[in-house]
Amino acid sequence: MDVDTTADGIYRFNSADWTLDYSMMVQLQRPGEPYAGPCPFYLVDHPEGTVLFDTGVSYEMVQDPESYGQHGAPHMTDFVQTCDIDESRTPVAQLADVGYDPGDVDYVVMSHLHTDHAGNVSAFPDAEFLVHEDELEYAMWPTATAQRLFYLDGDLAPLRSHEYDVTALTGRHDVFGDGSVEVFPTPGHSPGHQSLRVELPESGTVVLAGDVANLRAGYEAELPAAFSWSLDEATHSIRAVRREEEQHDADVFFHHDQEDGARFPDPPEKLQ
Asked: Residue 174 belongs to a domain with what CATH number?
């Protein structure tokens, strides 16, 4: 794709490793087999600013879910026992390792608002948050029990305040107006899930697909996560990402896939 500008690079950081049953991540496949999925977040470095994609898992939530947020999250107490995390893996700590402060982040694109993606929203009070409108509405009152587990008041309260700058997106959004960093809707895993396409000088087009499929195996077989808000919509979004991949000759990365994560260089190196 011809664009006026490319981003300078993408850093990948891993906030935690969370072990779930493989069949939750790729529906009905290999039940009973544990899978330690990374929970990354990304920093896109662009000549006009910086974009964070997701904010990872909250260390505070994992340490004390019963006291997390105004109402607590006691239902997470057993669930977080399989989450490998420490203070050195918070976004603030890892960004500092490569020379960035929270105030250096201009935009935060939220793929969606589940707790493994939205755990540190409060760390970026100066950024503009780009969240799909449907996600913001659904996170207020999720009707599906399996979805309700993952929307935590302790994560989301800042987005409901007047102190944070939140832009509700309804479709594609060109972050810098030059075609190099574009958010596009990919609903299904949650109502307002969205993905990010980035143009890089050496690697070409990269799509950070979030949880369109939790793992590459689910993408290839069109088997989204078992607890998806809509399996039909999730399947349509898998096909939409495949169209992006074909149209732009893109390299697609899936959020919780160990092998996809290993294809990124370790910080302080970045994908260029």
From this structure: 3.60.15.10
Closest CA to 150 of 60, 19, 61: 61
Q: Which helix (H) or strand (E) holds 24?
A: helix 22-25
Domain count within the chain = 1
Please report the DSSP string for 184-219 in residue order.
EE--SSSTT-EEEEEEETTTEEEEE-TTSSSSHHHH
CB distance 47 to 83 below 8 Å: no
**pTM for this prediction:** 0.96
For 161, the token pair is 């305040």
- The DSSP H or E segment spanning 245 is helix 231-248
Q: Is residue 269 part of a domain?
A: no
pLDDT in tens, 84-110: 999 999 999 999 999 999 999 999 999
Q: Is residue 3 part of a domain?
A: no
**Scanning the structure block, which residue is given the tokens 């026992």?**
81
Tokens representing 85?
């995390």
Give the integer Cα–Cα distance in Å for 211 and 227. Answer: 11
Which structural domain range is residue 92 located in? Answer: 9-262
